[in-house]
Amino acid sequence: MYFYKQQKFFQGETKVKVLVTGGAGYIGSHFVKYLVKNNFSPVVLDSLVRGHREAVGDSVPFENADLLDYDSLEKVIYKHKPEAIVHFAAFAYVGESVENPELYYTNNVVGSFNLIKAAVKNNIKKFVFSSTCSIYGNPLNVPISESEPAKPINPYANTKLVIEMMLKDFEYKYGLKHVCLRYFNAAGADPEGEIGESHSPETHLIPIVLEAALGKREKVFVFGNDYDTQDGTCIRDYIHVVDLADAHLKALLYLDKENSTSEIINLGTGAGNSVLEIIKRAEEITGKKINYEITGRRPGDPAVLVADNKKARKLLDWKPELKIEEILSTAWKWHSNPRY
Q: Where in this chain does the record put each NAD(P)-binding domain (predicted)?
């Protein structure tokens, strides 16, 4: 769908190497496939604690390593000599982070520190970080722009903010130019059906809804129907994983510009769908009846989370192309015939 001419440090006959940490995870694996299609040469580093080796093509160099093992990380970077890093590797369950903050600060923060340290030591100057809109907590203004104060309300979001701060400090001292991409609700799957979203346990709404359509769940629990929204249920900004992959590549291209600066950039569609809208549209696409039950609100759930994506459009020349129908249809194709 999207293809780019290589430029500057992406010039020449040799394909540019990009180290992708967490490249066997949901978003990371889609980005790896996208890099290959756009004539880049990804190198995947993943511990496989929560990733899937099957999500990475056999032709892509794969290193089974943990960011907490600095020596192994150094060996991977020395071996492949990447020109840029795109960092997805992280634990990302909010509830788990509340129950076990030590796990999250160790894995996410210490692992990222090791990666940033290794990047500086090996003179890698271009770094794209997979951050999160969770950093905004319960926002004061919607749509949410990058000027919204950072007020994370759980350890997972705290770890992401700490990593953003580390990148800023390392840029000041060592010139590590970076883009932190704060994205909203990643959803959908590879249109070719080769890779998709597979978590254990699954906590994301769209896979849960589709599992109910497949009979793998008895029903979907809807947490609250008394919010100040059109149907009383929470509204979220769902963005297709392929559009996210496109944004990460455009962030790399942006960092290659001589006048580029380190940035924090939101990624979202600028529109939202409520929980009941997702269920209704999923019924239309799958042709299945999806049972649901209204239950109490979850603590800390804002009524509406929608991105202001003007900065991404301007700086990255990026815009989301795939609508909620494509999100649901590609996800349905994957969940109907998962490969892993």
A: 19-329
